[in-house]
Amino acid sequence: MNLTLKIWRQSGPDDKGGIHTYQVSGISQDMSFLEMLDVLNEQLNEKGEEPVAFDSDCREGICGMCSLMINGEAHGPEVTTTCQLHMRSFNDGDTITIEPWRAEPFPVIKDLVVDRSAFDRIIQSGGFVSANTGSAPEANSVPAPRDKAMRAFNVATCIGCGACVAACPNGSASLFVGAKITHLGELPQGQPERWTRVVDMVGQHDHEGFGGCTNIGECAAACPKEIPLDVISQLNKDLRTALANGH
Amino acid sequence: MAVSGLLFIGFVLGHMYGNLKAFAGEEAFNEYAHHLRELGEPMLPHEGFLWIMRVGLIVAVIVHIACAVALWRRAAAARPVKYVAKKNTGSSLSSRTMRWGGVTLLVFIVWHLLNFTIVKVNPSNGETGGDNPYGLLVDTFDTWWMTIVYLLAMVALGLHLHHGTFSSLQTLGFTNSAVSRARARATGWIVAIVIAGGFSLVPLSVLVGIIEK
């Protein structure tokens, strides 16, 4: 496959940045999207040019490190992470536009790499369960109803990649926060901190500069883990209950 | 935003019911308009009910606009650098047109109040005032371009209600499962079609001559 790539290049956080166009050839349909970028970077290295910086880690779709806005879609046209997107989803001769996640709380570090530590600070503000250390408790001593356990597990698949923010026209991280609120709030272990958690996490979310949710639904469509929109409703319900009870 | 929006849905439902009285003829329509001014008497003063509604709606409009401005500004601040390419894959047209659609509705409501309440501008002859609501209604919608303006406003209203109904239920935390979310979406469709459609019946009927003086 031969492709035309329009890639956002930005030398550092203070650089203005802009779109640069590159040609790559000899791309196999079986390559992943990131392997295609590796090929481009090898070509750039050979020419003595600066390779394109992008994030990746596990390359098996579970770590949440890779990002990339591909042709206007977070993680590209398939419901998966960029590392698990393969070139068979594109056609020979295609022009592909590649941009970093765009959000004020996700500042660009270089090229396609953004700083997502705003998510870490949201987690630090309440996305945890306080538990005593020591020997593991008897597993059956804290029963969790099956439907709640399943819902908690389904939304616990959130890998914190930030695609929801990237796709949201408001730049809101409500799907991310909602996933954590639902995941911990459905389980018995999450109950003691449930009401302070939602207030603190939403407060940190707003403090970081993420936008407000208007229930548009781009986030759920972009999510590689298919977190449904109802976690935002759960977030709102928990926040309403917490505020009504003076938290 | 959600609570003030739900108040508006209640209001437009009542407003639409009153408009449909036009099908009952001039006397019934004018009687209804007159009765609105006497509603609650003697417990309430003359036009007391109307003024309670007006004050409530004005407060709701201020709250609704203040929330919209806050969300709009937060959204602009959260994404100062725009995408070169951005696709819409999970959103409805109605959800993407809430802000400018809302501005459109606000401009329309200003004209609508000048047309029927405050100045009572009669677009067919340029006269103002008068105390025959039915006559003003027929004269207005006998003017073809006024009917088009009102029908376009009803498209904007339908779009706004389609997303707004769902969005308010989601914001209030009533859509915690796939089933309840689907029901909220369906409610949005029903509210939008019933209200925008119900309002549109009157100007269309005037234009084709079903309602006449």
How would you sum up this structure, described in words?
Chain A is an alpha+beta fold and 247 residues long. Chain A has two domains: 3-110, Roll (Ubiquitin-like (UB roll)), CATH 3.10.20; 116-244, Fumarate Reductase Iron-sulfur Protein, Chain B, domain 2 (Orthogonal Bundle), CATH 1.10.1060. Chain A has helices at residues 33-46, 117-126, 146-156, 163-167, 174-185, 194-208, 218-222, 230-244; strands spanning 3-9, 18-24, 69-70, 73-74, 95-99, 108-110, 113-114. In chain A, helix 5 packs antiparallel against helix 6 (194-208), helix 5 packs across helix 8 and helix 6 crosses helix 8. The longest helix of chain A has 15 residues, at 194-208. The termini of chain A are far apart. Chain B has a single domain (2-208), classed as 3 helical TM bundles of succinate and fumarate reductases (Up-down Bundle), CATH 1.20.1300. The termini of chain B are far apart. Helix content of chain B is 73%, strand content 0%.
What is the topology?
The complex is a heterodimer of chains A (247) and B (213).
Chain A: E1 3-9, E2 18-24, H1 33-46, E3 69-70, E4 73-74, E5 95-99, E6 108-110, E7 113-114, H2 117-126, H3 146-156, H4 163-167, H5 174-185, H6 194-208, H7 218-222, H8 230-244
Parallel strand pairs in A: 1-5
Antiparallel strand pairs in A: 1-2, 3-4, 3-5, 6-7
Helix pairs in contact in A: 2-6, 3-5, 5-6, 5-8, 6-8
Chain B: H1 2-20, H2 26-38, H3 48-78, H4 93-96, H5 98-116, H6 133-142, H7 144-171, H8 178-208
What structural keywords apply?
heterodimer; A: 247 residues; alpha+beta; Ubiquitin-like (UB roll); Fumarate Reductase Iron-sulfur Protein, Chain B, domain 2; two-stranded antiparallel ribbon; 11% strand; elongated; B: 213 residues; mainly alpha; 3 helical TM bundles of succinate and fumarate reductases; 8 helices; globular
What fold name stands as the CATH topology of the largest domain in chain A?
Answer: Fumarate Reductase Iron-sulfur Protein, Chain B, domain 2
Which regions of chain A have little confidence, pLDDT < 50, spanning 5+ residues? none
N-C termini distance of chain A: 57 Å
Count the helices of chain A. How many? 8
Shape of chain A: elongated
Number of DSSP-assigned strands of chain A:
7
The ordered H/E elements of chain B are HHHHHHHH
Q: Treating each run of at least 4 consecutive H or I residues as one helix, how many helices of chain B?
A: 8
Helix content of chain B: over 70%
Helical amount of chain A: 25-40%
Count the beta strands of chain B.
Answer: 0
N-end to C-end Cα span of chain B: 41 Å
